[in-house]
């Protein structure tokens, strides 16, 4: 029997499971999924968990059950591609015939002194829970700084404003306007929402130092009771330590068939993969679809195409609290209740098909 090992139960490997189970897995192949927690986590909704507007249960989806699927809950400490072996923290090691690495990302602090030690995170469910406890235990009038005005920072700031209208919230944005790579209409809409709801956006920010009770932006010092970091990501430590070729961001370089060059048994999906698009759940799912196609062809000893189809993303949707939102879909900017409704619908459909 061949053993297909999936590392990480994120969006990419959940799509692999959805494609192969229950009826499209060859008789001579079994699957082993390894993850630290016993459920799939909706990472795109961690901002709501941290803000206190979604419960822990709402951001979890059970893993599927199947007689040919083995679940191991453990921490992965190393991947040895030469020995075709994955080393676990408490369960020894497991061997694989084919491997899909989907271990996601962690915060990147850009060598800012104090950032790793004194800021909170929403990059894992465990860290999001800790951030929730900190933000929601603070007394009225506390000052909260959110570093990074990308999608995560925007959604966290808006959701926290609805959850805790008593807090003094500052969102530090490195660019001249939020979402500077998107149409100005979206930026203006988001910035107006923040102005109307009392969230202070600090543009052209450059955070140079973080201390337990303050943050340094250029020459200015801002007293803070809590700071959340959403200003960059990097592949997980285990992936950064793998002995394979990486790009300048630390992501693994792949062939057109999504495997490591020179090793057709090791695939990488999601945030750890060097791809022409920015990391996202949608991209991980699109990539997983192609990985399954490649695996099935290789299992059947079929010839692979020289070039895989171009991965086309449908767009971006974001929330501004529970009633407003924004998006860029089919090269068109959308705002307001329609955008928020669309995002809620996409989330519901995802949970319905995977739950």
UniProtKB/TrEMBL annotation:
Q: Which domain of life is it from?
A: Bacteria
Listed A to Z, the keywords are: FAD, Flavoprotein, Oxidoreductase
Keyword Signal annotated: no
Q: Which cofactor does it need?
A: FAD
Q: Establish whether keyword Flavoprotein is in the entry.
A: yes
Instruction: Please cite one Gene Ontology biological process associated with this protein.
Output: aerobic electron transport chain
Where does the FAD/NAD(P)-binding domain start and stop, copy by copy? Answer: 3-283
Q: Which Gene3D superfamilies match?
A: 3.50.50.100
The UniProt GO MF terms for this protein read: NAD(P)H dehydrogenase (quinone) activity
Family to which the UniProt record says this protein belongs: Belongs to the NADH dehydrogenase family.
Question: Could you identify this protein by its name?
Answer: FAD-dependent oxidoreductase
Q: What is the lineage of its organism?
A: Bacteria, Bacillati, Bacillota, Bacilli, Bacillales
